[in-house]
Amino acid sequence: MSPPVAELTDRARAIFRAVVDGYLASGAPVGSRTLALSGIALSPASIRGVLGELEALGLLASPHTSAGRVPTDLGLRLFVDGMMQASEPSADERAQIERRAGTGGPVEEALAATTAALSGLSACAGLVLVPKRELRLRSIGFVPLSATQAMAVLVAEDGSVENRVIGLPGGMLPAALVEAGNFMSATLHGLTLAEARARIERELAEGRAAIDGAARTLVEQGLAVWSEDGERRPILIVRGQGRLLDDAAADLDRVRELLDDLEGKQEIAQLLDLARAGDATRIFIGAENKLFALSGSSVIARPFRGPGGQVVGVVGVIGPTRLNYARVVPMVDFTAATLARLMG
């Protein structure tokens, strides 16, 4: 745990801030001579003494290839939580985000477009965890493919169609497929997947489902497939991965690790899910999260709400720890507010 900012002397705070500002601006270690030339009213020797104290506290580190210092993840956490002065998005930046959010069409497309705008403005990869698609069912049917397989066809009220191939019990007759489809369509029309599963389980448990054993098995199996799929519906949209390569010359290996992290979308989605609780923006810095222990990446994320005030998704950015946090954090906040208006 980093020491509170109040525990640092005025001189230590000034030098620490100068190192962080210099590193975030250039990506290069900051040395005592540079600090002396920047306006720190101390000799290079005195500055080196303070740098050593800050390094002993775990706030700065000295790369092997340079006499300068860079902030550690602990140091960046201290800076972000106790010293950062946020800079609100400009009118043009706000207009770009709002314009992309108002493109119309399916919600997923508007979310993707807004995330792309956030990526372009922040020079990071933009992330959005799409709200769970609570499909409401119009009909379900079963089409025989062979003696052992059938295709379950789900039609939602919004007109979307999804298919799943399922196995058939041995000796099932085509009439059972028709019976199962008719029963499910009549019983589940207008329900979400979660509501449908609860209704079917209740109907079958209470013996109110007037279907034979073969159709019953098919109903249970088909619903299980769709319900499992529904639980996995949150989708992570990533836009602007290529922007991470713009600054790759300094540390190409870390950028490659970061791009590998983005391929593991399930893990990134789980991380974003941590930001669902509360209203505040969450900032995950480097090795604070084991997912980024190698890539040295940071994630800035904030939840956004839909009708009724419920959290329906999370938007944010991912990039190297050398982010302009003061600029990007308010930008993520504004994007979350924009998406909340879109969802409303």
Shape label: elongated
- Cross-sheet strand order for the largest sheet: 7-3-10-9-8
Mean of residue pLDDT values = 82
Largest sheet: 5 strands, antiparallel
Radius of gyration: 27 Å
Percent of sequence in beta strands: 15-25%
**Which runs of at least 5 residues are low in confidence (pLDDT < 50)?**
227-232
Number of helices: 12
Structural class: alpha+beta
Distance between the termini: 40 Å
Helix content: 40-55%
Strand count? 10
- N-to-C series of helices and strands: HHHEEHHHEEEEHHHEHHEEEH
Task: Put the structure in a nutshell.
The protein has 344 residues and is α+β, with helices and mostly antiparallel strands. 47% of the residues lie in helices and 18% in strands. A hairpin with an 8-residue loop joins strand 1 (60-61) and strand 2 (70-71).
List keywords for this structure.
344 residues; alpha+beta; three-stranded antiparallel beta sheet; 10 strands; 47% helix
Structure description:
This protein has 344 residues and is of the alpha+beta class. The protein is built from twelve helices and ten strands. Strands 7-3-10-9-8 form a five-stranded antiparallel beta sheet, with helices on both faces. A hairpin with a 5-residue loop joins strand 9 and strand 10 (311-320). Helix 6 (107-122) packs antiparallel against helix 12 (325-343), helix 7 (174-188) crosses helix 9 and helix 8 (193-205) runs antiparallel to helix 9 (213-231). Mean pLDDT is 82; it is low at 227-232.
